[in-house]
Fold each of these.
Amino acid sequence: MCGIVGAIAQRPVAAILLEGLRRLEYRGYDSAGIAVLNPDGQLNRARTLGKVARLAEAVAAQPLPGLLGIAHTRWATHGEPATHNAHPHICRDRCAVVHNGIIENHELLRAEQRAAGHRFTSETDTEVIVHALYDALAAGLSLIDAVRQTTAQLQGAYALGVLDRHDPEHLVAARQGSPLVIGIGFGEHFIASDVFALLPVTNRFIFLEEGDLAELTRETVRIWNAAGELVERPLKTSQVTAEAAERGSYRHFMLKEIFEQPQALAATLEGRLLADRVLPESFGSQAAALFSQIQAVTIVACGTSFHAALVARHWLEAIAGLPCQVEVASEYRYRAHVVPAQALFVTISQSGETADTLAALRLAQASGYAATLAICNVPESSLVRESDLVLLTRAGPEIGVASTKAFTTQLTALLLLTIALGRLHRLDATEEARLVTLLRSVPKQLEAVLALDAQIAALAEQFVDKQHTLFLGRGTQYPIALEGALKLKEISYIHAEAYPAGELKHGPLALIDEEMPVVVVAPNNALLEKLKSNLEEVRARGGQLFVFADSQVALTATAGVTVIRLPETDDLLAPLIFTVPLQLLAYHVAVLKGTDVDQPRNLAKSVTVE
Ligand code: F6R
């Protein structure tokens, strides 16, 4: 998604803005731009298609001196990826705007502005903002009042950074539906889409809330809330270090993040387990009281986080004995529902800013759920701020677009939830103690499975020239098959689908031939014999099987059947353990294909628009 950086300082800002954009690259984008007010009061701009490095080259060739500026990475929604659509947008050399979000009434505003004599130079929805702003400034309003008047005309979602050539002392920002933080320096202030962009210049942040409008000078920050009242927002010190968001010696962020999983899971468990039980306080101080009322669970999420929810449904029903519904947020938010009595509404999100998940949460809050719980990786995110209860996943910054450690830490958090709710229903103390012991063993088990990296890298060669791949699993492994297929398709661009293995003969069997590798997740559990019959169905039709099986599974490699052995694990932990080789497989196939592993085409890390 689009990324915003802005700075008002006593030193040149171009390098700070470019470094900020580089740090926002992980969000996904197709073009980038920067505008700086130079010492002579001229507004200078550079925009390029493609990577931030190209923009940096353009700025090196034609420097942008100045102490006030805004910059942007654009992920196209309205108008193709092209230089003329890249931000900042400027009106009549006077004011410049960067925008993240979607302006829903842009067509109407465009028609009115065109009729009033404005000339449009892009196909973006954003350009209407800068023309409205110009009109307000030309009518004599101060920058802050001009932004106030402009945003009052906008419907939709926006985070904005705005500057006016005639006002070198102010940078203005606004937030409605898309995240924005203010970075606090000494004699300098910044804005950005997230904290990562600003870590080289500050670790002190103010997180804007919905409807906030902020006016920054070098010395001051003033914020007005949606009701127009001047407000104080808390100043927070980020614990994230600049290095945590660096790739280190790894070839890609994705590989680094796959290998960080043992520590990330250990961090997610830390302080949340006693010797034999889960601490309900881990979910917030009111959790114990709220959990005791819960009789059902609804979980809503998107993408990989949705797959975590699908696994959790098995756990919550089987272990906690609670009915559990799971749905993708983009569907949930647009249908009428029956809210179960005394139900907990759970959202799962790495970023905590996914527009559909946030909208689903807001809908649930108005629908009579007993409480809302966010399982999220970003402490300062909107989802966390707006939920009654929170369980942070503590995966650390996830920069690769393809979610890896966020997923396994979500599963860990969902196991904590299952156990915490289960003890209030049908989980007895002995079983709780057994599950807690198992949970503690996960980081070590993950280390063992990561040792398969070289073997999986070799296996990847057999997938490189394929067009399609099928993933099969049963029970809790079906969502893991879905996740494996999602990883492969998003970073290697090989079409991959996942099926519950029992569904094979109801259609997908027709696809099987020698050109279709079939990846199977086969832990040693009650469904194994059934799964083996499904594998026979594939073999009988010439399909190539790649079976990830734990060491106890009696399966032999034969012609057309490759078996990859995983360390033996308990069925409860199998979804966590079996995810890792599928992540590695997708990673190595993508590397062999030479795709952009960390920033796959067309995708964004934080999907802040609908
Ligand atoms: C896939 C992936 C996406 C996200 C989805 C939800 O690898 O990363 O499918 O899982 O966009 O994002 P969050 O979890 O931030 O709400």
Amino acid sequence: MARLTRFAPSPTGPLHLGHAYAALIAAERGDRFLVRIEDIDRTRCKPAYAAQIFDDLHWLGLTWDLPVMRQSQRQAAYDAALDQLSAQGLTYCCTCTRADIRAALSAPQEGVDGPIYPGTCRDAHHDSGAVRLNMAKAAKLLPDLSFTETGTHPARYKINPAQLIQSSGDVILSRRDIGVAYHLAVVVDDAAQGITEVTRGQDLLDATPLQVALQHLLALPTPIYHHHALIRDDQGKRLAKRDDARALAKYRAEGATPADIRRMIGL
Ligand code: GLU
Ligand code: ZN
């Protein structure tokens, strides 16, 4: 089977060395390589950054199959997935603010999306608000799951659905201001693009069991995962997109070649 991989940047800033690494790994591992612009958060994403991303990727010598998927144009697909989950009785609306959630938690337990939601709105029957997944209910429907990881910690990872109640809890699937949340969008879009191997930074390994559970609830295939090491700066600090000092554009302006970039990130 042809291997389909993708690079899925959010256009919230210039690409830096860490992104170059992620894109090159994805392109190298795929027979076909796709790009997806993760621009659901319109307050943080800018078209100019997407244009700069394409320019930087071309400069690195990468080409990809068209069309580029843009999450900002995918709301109908996200709504269909939300309907599918709600038809199974697995969703509810939540009107809590961040402050409400903090106030309801005496000893917040950190999950993949921040503090585990205390469940305040679970039986409140609100008809609008953020949409959450009822994880306890979902866990009852889910069989034991697993996924294959081929990255820095290769293994066949087993997922005990009951454990997702503690590690993820009632995650947000759709926000009030944005019609979808990351975990749902990524699962829907990887399936729509036919991705067979998800390559991405190791920081997302912890989110994978939740995403595999969503795939199962939506009857979508589970791809292979390849979580790669994160490129860090000299102090060992993870490179963030806002860290413009490491922007590829800056190295380009200083006369670096694509080969120099590959050397700097150890490829
Ligand atoms: N858009 C995410 C990022 O920029 C990547 C999501 C993924 O690869 O699953 O970090
Ligand atoms: Zn709530």
